[in-house]
Amino acid sequence: MPFALRSLSRNESRVVLSLTEQGRREVARPDIVRMLGTSLEGADQVIRALRRKGWLERASWGRYLLIPPDQGPEALGESNLLALASRIADPSYIGYGTAAAHYGLTTQTRNIIWLVTPQRKRARNVQDAEVRIVNPTARKFFGFGPVDVLGYSVMMSDREKTTIDCIDRPDLAGGIGEAAYILATASRRLDWKKATEYLDRIASTSLVRQFGWLADHAKTDMPGDVRAHLLKYVDRNLSAFLGPKRRVRGAIGYNATWRLTVNVTPDELQGSHGLGRKQTARRNH
After folding, report:
1. Which domain holds residue 22?
2. Which pLDDT value is given to residue 152?
3. How many domains does the chain have?
4. Is residue 162 part of a domain?
5. C-alpha dihedral (112, 118, 124, 127), degrees to nearest 10
6. pLDDT digits over 158-179, tens only?
7. CB 117 within 8 A of CB 144
8. Domain-ending residue, one of 157, 184, 218
9. What is the DSSP string of 141-168?
10. Does the pTM exceed 0.90?
């Protein structure tokens, strides 16, 4: 975008300078009406001009993100797509594979942003990315908080909840193999106590067994008291599944420790096998 397109009229300058001086990164249509002391129609003209020149980006109806003068149009990169997507619904958080990518837990890159919210919203496009909506059950809507993304506050699941969510819904994380990789990668910085509290809160015996088995598979440094606590869930049910319900040829099969049928082939999980231990060893040298 040529610099000339960011040259401003007097009213456009008033909006940008006011927001910059106040340290604000977001603005609503009524705010601009008050700043300029003009009508809605007059404010809309300024908004359209600022969007065309690359100073404002629409986040949701009537709400916009400021692209600060010190960042320029290049600020509208992949990271700021998260800021835009996060404004689609409130309350909400960025989660699953998108959050895993933000934390560096996966090497996969996708043009899909997963937005978790109890609100019923339609999927939509934000620039070149598709924002898909996940409506969780009430007991799973927790474990998130504000994260700074290039100066914008974005609600995102924390590392522990991201890891658990990806195991719970591997289809939103790139598949079971990628969910296992995310757990293995996250394990070196995982707050095991917090993860255990989250699993208790979700109260899914199947999810606990999947988490426990994958942690063993990755040879993570799961604390003994955490492992003992999770194994208590094993006695509450006969068995659980990891993978599709249909029979998979060459699958790993039944694990007696976690009473879990691992309906996934070794090849699919090869990338995460022992990865937790290897990362720990690498960190200590």
Report:
1. 3-75
2. 81
3. 3
4. no
5. -60
6. 999 999 999 999 999 999 999 9
7. no
8. 157
9. --SEEEEEETTEEEEEE-HHHHHHHHHH
10. no
